[in-house]
Structures are given as C-alpha cells and as structure tokens.
Amino acid sequence: MARKLPLLTALPSFEAAARLLSFSKAADELHVTHGAISRAIKNLEDQLGVQLFERGTRSVSLTAVGEPYARAVRETLEQLAAATAAATARYSSPTLNVSTSDGFAGRWLVPRLYRFHRAHGDIDVRVSTSGKLTNFLGDGIDVAIRYGGGNYPGLTAEFLTGEEVFPVCSPKLLEGPHPLRTPDDLKHHTLIHDSFPIDWARWLSSAGVEGVDPHGGIAFDSATFAMESAAQGEGVVLGRTMLVAADLAAGRLVRPFAHALKSPSSFYLVHPPAAIRQPKVRAFRDWLLAEVKQG
C-alpha cells in the first residue's frame, strides 16, 4: 500500500516557521528568501487541504491543525537527521558536540573531561553553554545534558541524578564574630543568588528562619560566578549537589547546616533516539553514567 506523504521539500520550511513563528526568521535560518518560505508552506497547505498558519499583518500563528502537525514534523525531522548521522557515522567528524548549562559545565563536566580524553583520545569534545534550548536538527548538537523533569518529546532522556539544595560557604565564615552555626545565623551574612528556581525565600521558609531578607545580597546570572563568590568568602549561596561536589571535597566550600530541599528537577542526558547508534555518542553516554555513579 502506497504511503500518503506530504511535500517533503516543504517540511524544513514549515518546521522552521512553526518553531520561530516567523516566515522571515525561518528564511534567515534556512538561508532562503521570505517568498521561498511562504511558497513552500502554501504548497504544503494546498497539498494537505488544510490551513496550517493564521497569517496576520506582522505575525503568524499555528492553527489548531498546524500545532500538532508541527510537533510531529519536528520529531520526524529530528529522527531523520539522527538516523542519517548514525548511518554515516564512520565517515563523519570525530567531534562530539555537547550542550549543557554553564554551571554544570564549569562545576562538574569540564573538571572531569580529561578522563574521557584519556579513554577516548580519538574523540574531540566541544562543549556549548549558550543557554538556549537545543535544536539537534539545526545546531549540530549530538547530546545535551539538561536539568528538568525529563519530558522531552521525540527525544531519549536518560536519568543521570537528582539533586538537593543547601547553603554552602567558605570555611572562613565558620569563624569570626558571627560564625555560621545555625540557619538563624544567616542574618549576619550576605546572601548570594543565582538564577536557580529554588531561591532563598523557599529555603529560609522551609528552615523556619525569620528576620532575613531573602532578596537582599549579591546576584549573578551564572551559577559558576555565584559559587566562586561564595568560595572567596563574600557570602552564602544555595549549592546544588552536582555543582558543589568538587568544591566540598576540596574544602573550598563547606556545608554549615544539614537542612536541604530536594529539587523537583534532575539531570538528564538527552539526545535523538537514533543518535545512540553513533560510537562517539555511546562512548560519551557510558562514560558519563559511570562518572555520575562514581560521584
């Protein structure tokens, strides 16, 4: 029985326009004209006999039919791209492109990468910390390490580890005129903030601490900078298990209180399903799981 397939050459244009909600941005991404995008989508709509976009004067939006169709097309293109990469793996570049957050890269991954290079000297690792969501199809990313709930439609998400959140500081803050002994002692110290969803307001409330401004202190967008500020003795930051493990082991940071909050999110290794067929992806995945297990 013959398959009823859409106009395949139009699918990249449709996927980009649906993801960006802009024909112009889709044209820029695919290096074609706005007219080429518009014609491709119109031809696709004519073939399907449905309207995929609502077109406004300065904007476009997906219709009730177009939204689920866009998700299906995106997943199909991701799978096709991964399958193509897997089929040509032995002829492709030995470079493994990894996407993750700057905090995870700087505080956990990068200090351990030398061990991966020792075991797999033929694989060059490139780490991207752009902070944007990974588009495996367009960004050339092989695997991503993500912090979330594990729901990544159309992708394989392998659980790495959960996390707890707790205050950490320089050992020098355990001494002096106001040493940190109990959570109430935080009223004498500067709070350091980063962009993590569990903030000081939640932690202080859970610990029963009153009289401390949960919003005052020093703020950073980067977890790496926040942890470094704490290590220099500038205040107390909320640490996360994976990101402070090395500093706790080295004594650069200490954990003054036992109280911790369990994070609702966890770390996952995320990739298109077919990507695991590539030896470089499989090697990195096996190494990563072993490192996490080792602690």
Automatic annotation (TrEMBL):
Keyword Transferase in record: no
Keywords: DNA-binding, Transcription, Transcription regulation
SUPFAM superfamilies reported in the protein's UniProt record: Periplasmic binding protein-like II, Winged helix' DNA-binding domain
HTH lysR-type domain boundaries: 6-63
Family: Belongs to the LysR transcriptional regulatory family.
Protein name: Transcriptional regulator GcvA
Species of the source: Devosia neptuniae
